[in-house]
Design a protein that fits this description.
23 helices; six-stranded mixed β-sheet; elongated; four-stranded antiparallel β-sheet; alpha/beta; Rossmann fold
Length: about 600
């Protein structure tokens, strides 16, 4: 099948949108208006749920906040003095609605986003129901009867009253938000958002403030819903609580998931499919089964279950495969940009890390007991021992993933025990993981660029407005340099999930190097590598050591360790039983008896 260009497909879509009100009957224009309104909410859920991994059933409540704010402010005749200037102006009501929605979202987000697992969606259900009943029980906004007489919008002195005129306003707003969301996801902040779904552990270790980022995307999704509610109120000229209940919130989530929860354009597709499907069922089923009963709801539910079974990633990826679109980039070249500032490396021999009496207990199990070790600049220290010795626990204690039970950890002259993984990473420590933690659907380049997150500063607003391109170019160029440094330049634009396990481990090293660390923690970096790949890795680590970087290495491959390490620390049952030069450790009777004979 012949592929079409991205620009050609976009221009064709915009041409059809523009011609819609000129060619279609009033009924279909009205249907497209509702699809646009629903798609705005679904777009926020794509960012929040599909990309960020935070499930919310309560977005309809934020739609209600936007609708009721403008309905009340534009119809009330006895507004308090501090609101009098806003009264009667839909545009000022929009601004105040966004501010109010942001305040409510920040409060609910602070309470809800601390939850995890199934507790998070249950929490969103709870406040979604609460806000719905609040709308119906407040007499000053009409209770269950609602508010009528909402004025029409005015643009340049012209009233926007008809559905055909409103169509262009709705779809202009939707396309602007699509553009902003696409920009956001194609940025430093967007990579951090995608990292949330892959697990906060890796993101925090790369310097991402995951708690703040969750609040930000929750806030963005709420503001999108508010805009939809404001448009809905002035399109309908009447509001009551019915469109803002839990059932509608579930439908919004269906739209995002069915369209393609991780696809920006999937929000439009999902809103269109579900809106048209519901209308079709409401028209057809009463003719077949009679007007009594809610058969359309039953059939709709069955169809949704079947769609979720057959297309778990949504309909947009299926459509993309059926109608391939050329990116138009041709042969892609490695990004180029001005080098990022580098940290000043400590002089060789400088004490970087000192672990003093580190103890970690899990109930009655002592995973680390009075551990002592030091790492200096320009040195490779190997931490060895069989599975269960406590090596990875020691890594997690040093990098801030797990708290100490007792003892001290000093890095770059200051205590870091008790600090977050993000704060430790900002001081110049970076790491890989025993079990590879990559984002498989993102490219090798993007995965590596996550490591450079701390070296940028532009947040979600500049990203959404496309104002961070210079910084973004520098971050990607840094990622490209580190990818070339570790020998993965040929795979730079491939999906990380398509790499062999050994290559994925090498990519984790490239990601860690993007953070410009002075201390590098590597957890079994040679696992899965072939002989020549191990030699190349060893050469890379020697070059890093020569540059003054300190390296703490956990590894099971004794030939690799003994040919590379300057010193070796040996653990047994969470305790240090030997330390010294590689040749000394190899001759130690306790090590020979307890470890080397059993190490794979």
């Amino acid at each position: 099948m012949m592929a079409v260009s991205q620009r050609g497909a976009l221009l064709a879509f915009l041409a059809l949108l523009g011609a819609g009100p000129l060619l279609l009957p009033e009924f279909y224009v009205t249907l497209l208006n509702y699809i646009g309104l629903y798609a705005i909410v679904a777009l926020g859920l794509v960012l929040l749920t599909g990309v960020g991994g935070l499930t919310s059933f309560g977005q309809a409540a934020f739609v209600g906040l936007g609708a009721y704010t403008t309905a009340y402010l534009t119809t009330a005749t006895d507004l308090p003095s501090w609101l009098a200037l806003v009264g009667g102006s839909p545009w000022l009501a929009l601004a105040l609605g966004l501010v109010g929605t942001a305040a409510v979202a920040l409060l609910l987000g602070a309470l809800t986003l601390r939850l995890s697992g199934h507790y998070l969606p249950l929490g969103t259900i709870a406040w979604g129901i609460s806000l719905y009943f609040l709308f119906g029980n407040l007499e000053f906004i009409g209770g269950h009867t609602g508010i009528t007489g909402i004025p029409a919008l005015q643009l340049a002195g012209v009233e926007v009253k008809s559905g055909r005129a409103f169509y262009y306003l709705i779809w202009t707003a939707l396309l602007a938000l699509v553009w902003a969301t696409h920009n956001l996801l194609d940025s430093r902040a967007g990579r951090a958002i995608r990292a949330l779904k892959g697990g906060s552990l890796m993101a925090e270790a790369m310097g991402v403030d995951t708690a703040r980022l969750k609040i930000e995307i929750f806030l963005i999704a709420a503001l999108f819903a508010c805009v939809s509610g404001w448009l809905y109120a002035h399109l309908q000229r009447f509001v009551n609580p019915t469109p803002f209940g839990l059932g509608v919130g579930i439908e919004y989530l269906f739209m995002a998931v069915i369209g393609g929860a991780a696809s920006v354009w999937g929000a439009l597709l999902g809103a269109g499919v579900i809106t048209v499907l519901k209308q079709w069922l409401q028209d057809l089923l009463p003719k077949l089964l009679g007007s009594s009963g809610n058969f359309e709801t039953i059939v709709f539910g069955v169809i949704m279950v079947l769609m979720l079974q057959r297309a778990r990633d949504g309909l947009w990826p299926l459509l993309a495969r059926l109608v391939p679109v050329k990116s138009g980039d041709g042969q892609r070249a490695a990004p180029q940009g001005e080098p990022l500032p580098r940290r000043q490396m400590p002089e060789a021999g400088t004490l970087l890390l000192e672990v003093k009496g580190a103890t970690k207990r899990f109930g009655g199990l002592v995973a680390c007991n009075e551990m002592q070790l030091t790492v200096r600049a320009g040195e490779v220290l190997a931490l060895i021992g069989p599975n269960g010795a406590g090596k990875s626990t020691m890594f997690n204690l040093i990098s801030g993933v797990a708290p100490l039970t007792a003892g001290e950890i000093v890095f770059m002259g200051g205590r870091i025990d008790g600090m977050s993984a993000r704060a430790i990473a900002q001081r110049g420590m970076s790491r890989s993981f025993q079990h590879v933690r990559l984002l498989p659907t993102m490219s090798v380049l993007e995965n590596a660029a996550i490591g450079a997150h701390m070296r940028g500063s532009k947040g979600v607003v500049p990203a959404a407005l496309h104002l961070e391109r210079v910084e973004e170019g520098r971050l990607l160029a840094e990622a490209a340099r580190q990818i070339e440094r570790v020998g993965l330049e040929k795979q730079m634009f491939e999906q990380a999930g398509s790499l062999a396990l050994g290559q994925q481990r090498i990519l984790e090293i490239a990601r860690a190097l993007c953070a410009d660390p002075c201390l590098l923690l590597l957890d079994e970096p040679a696992a899965g590598l072939r002989y020549l790949e191990k030699q190349a890795l060893a050469d890379l680590l020697r070059r890093l050591r020569a540059e003054g970087m300190g390296i703490l290495l956990v590894e099971h491959d004794m030939d690799f360790v003994m040919g590379l390490a300057d010193r070796v620390v040996v653990m047994e049952f969470g305790q240090r039983i030997a330390e010294g030069l590689p040749e000394e450790v190899q001759r130690d009777p306790a090590v020979l008896e307890a470890y080397l004979g059993g190490v794979e």
